[in-house]
Amino acid sequence: MNRTWIELDREALAHNIRRYQSLLPAGCRIMGVVKADAYGHGSVQVSQVLEELGADYLAVSSLDEAMELRAGGITMPILILGHTPPERVEELLRYHITQAVTCEAKALEYSAEAVRCGGTLKVHIKVDTGMSRLGFLCGGDHFETGVAGICAACTLPGLEAEGIFTHFAVSDEADAESDAYTRGQFDLFCRVIGAVEQRLGRRFPLRHCANTGAVARWPETYLDMVRPGLLLYGCGEFAGQLGLRPVMTLKTTVSTIKVYEPGTSVSYGRRFVTDRTTRMGVVPYGYADGFFRCLSDRWQVMTAEGPAPQRGRICMDMCMIDVTHVPYVRLGDEVTIMGKDGIYEITADDIAREAQKTGDLVELFGALINYGNAILKKTPDMLPVLKSAGVVDSGGKGLMVLYAGFNAALHGEPIEDMELNQAA
């Protein structure tokens, strides 16, 4: 029995990719952002679908993430958005991985290492137009020095400047001030591109800046390639507008059921006290797994019989649910924490909104990262692909399933030792 697991709807992911493809102008490419284990969805499995459906590029945060994709059989181009130590340039070359260059000093280091290794490193130049994070500074008085630095980087030996990109800070915000800021970022980016290309006498093959918010709200920023992140997985405020479907369903099981008399306090702090005879279940899902503790006594989960309110303070790796009004719920029954269950649906946006973390939806997925191994439930014609990729055959159809066993190993609690005692 698995404690808690994630089911990923392969058809929903495929639908979202095709939807993107239908929205983009001819020739515009898609770079799927799969950093942080594809926002907890399983980077290798998501990338397999992206590669199969004709996406053009993948974006990750680090060389280790890129190496995981290569080990998983992914052959499509990969861009590392974050830092890679120069001593690992040899690995970038060996595995055909593209590196972001964020300043002239890094360009010099990468160039020297690439020349030493006898190879040519493909790079994308990062321009800081207002995110104030990574990239060549080009705003205001920095324009001339920034452009000069980019030109110098692009002409270094051992480097091939395939692309240039920037990142928007508030492209998802709809107020006038944010719109003006995004417009300013885009205008500056276009000015930088124009100046650099004029001086170099050539065009960058890939110019990209449209992140999730810009894909939804700023079609003029699409340029040569777009970079959908969270939106790729059918989440966020724009998903419904674009006709995208949530990819993830989060489920757990009822590990314990007990019946308590009126006046029984439940969980830490004794903040919830039963006011009647109460049938209470325990599920192995807590705040360490992404169940925001501020949702204590404010949320509900879905059973096959209907909703069951969460009761008492949410614990680190478990919480309690009131199953009094769903009497046919039994030990071991599935419970849906996020996703669709019959006529009911709880979305990631619903959870984040109630937790007042609307702007931090990724925190919810961040807690789901690296809790277990991903298993792609096959369709019959996928079996040869799965075997060649070393993926376990788990039967079923159309889903990618990440069997998590959340925190079982982390807390030294073997799955088979879960408490399975049901009160009479």
List the helices and strands and how they pair.
Blueprint: E1 4-9, H1 10-23, E2 29-33, H2 35-40, H3 43-52, E3 57-60, H4 63-71, E4 78-80, H5 89-94, E5 98-101, H6 104-117, E6 121-128, E7 136-137, H7 143-154, E8 159-165, H8 176-200, E9 206-210, H9 212-217, E10 225-226, E11 248-253, E12 256-260, E13 265-266, E14 272-273, E15 278-283, E16 300-303, E17 306-311, E18 319-322, E19 334-341, E20 344-346, H10 348-354, H11 361-366, E21 373-376, H12 383-389, E22 399-403
Parallel strand pairs: 2-3, 2-10, 3-4, 4-5, 5-6, 6-7, 6-8, 8-9, 9-10
Antiparallel strand pairs: 1-11, 1-22, 11-19, 12-15, 13-14, 15-18, 16-17, 17-18, 19-20, 21-22
Task: Write a brief structural summary.
The protein has helices spanning 10-23, 35-40, 43-52, 63-71, 89-94, 104-117, 143-154, 176-200, 212-217, 348-354, 361-366, 383-389; strands at 4-9, 29-33, 57-60, 78-80, 98-101, 121-128, 136-137, 159-165, 206-210, 225-226, 248-253, 256-260, 265-266, 272-273, 278-283, 300-303, 306-311, 319-322, 334-341, 344-346, 373-376, 399-403. It is α/β, with parallel strands linked by helices.
